[in-house]
Design brief:
The chain is mainly beta and 180 residues long. The chain has 1 helix and 12 strands. Strands 1, 3, 4, 5 and 6 form a 5-stranded antiparallel β-sheet that branches. A 3-stranded mixed β-sheet has the order 2-10-7, with no helix packed on it. Strands 8-9 form a two-stranded antiparallel sheet. A hairpin with a 4-residue loop joins strand 8 and strand 9. The longest helix has 9 residues.
């Protein structure tokens, strides 16, 4: 009862979570370092649920820890160092990392969380403005379209009937397109 979404069996203790994101401004396709630190006492998580967002790629974390018995309980910290690649320009919100856990002292479920904040992603140095397509460019694209001779999609389910002059990608039926 009252178990928070994302709780994993074994995440038990008193935990605090913090994060450091550096740098806060990168070029499109660049990376930032995200270090998440879980401190407290108990059975520390071996991994964290990271926020899934379009245009953000999280690599496997490098883990560091200092966990040892202290005053009759296991305490210390475990850190997760991520490299995060950002592919969309603009102000990118990295989201929030949450650690749902059971706190045996308080006898209730709790959620430790840290907001990662935003990163400003600027256009890359070699990004070029794409020119507006001209009429000749669109005509060339149409001539390269391998699907240009297909019939329209069928709107009702029925047996297939070949069109009177069946063609395959602009060539006569029976002649493979790569031979024309």
């Amino acid at each position: 009862a009252n178990r928070p979404v994302g709780f994993r069996q074994g995440d038990v203790g008193q935990f605090q979570i913090s994060a450091l994101v550096q740098p806060r401004r990168v070029e499109e396709g660049g990376s930032v370092a995200v270090t998440v630190r879980v401190t407290g006492a108990g059975n520390f998580p071996t991994n964290l649920a990271i926020p899934e967002r379009t245009g953000i790629e999280w690599l496997e974390p490098e883990k560091k820890e200092s966990i040892e018995p202290r005053n009759g309980e296991v305490a210390g910290f475990r850190s997760f160092g991520y490299v995060v690649r950002l592919t969309n320009k603009g102000t990118v919100d990295l989201g929030t990392i949450e650690l749902p856990h059971w706190n045996p002292r308080a006898r209730r479920y709790e959620v430790a969380r840290t907001v990662l904040g935003t990163v400003e992603v600027t256009p890359g140095a070699n990004a070029k403005a794409s020119p507006a397509p001209s009429a000749s460019a669109s005509a060339a694209a149409d001539s390269d379209d391998p699907w240009r001779n297909l019939p329209p999609p069928r709107t009702t389910l029925s047996d297939f009937k070949a069109p009177p002059e069946a063609t395959l990608l602009g060539t006569a039926v029976g002649t493979p397109a790569y031979m024309s």
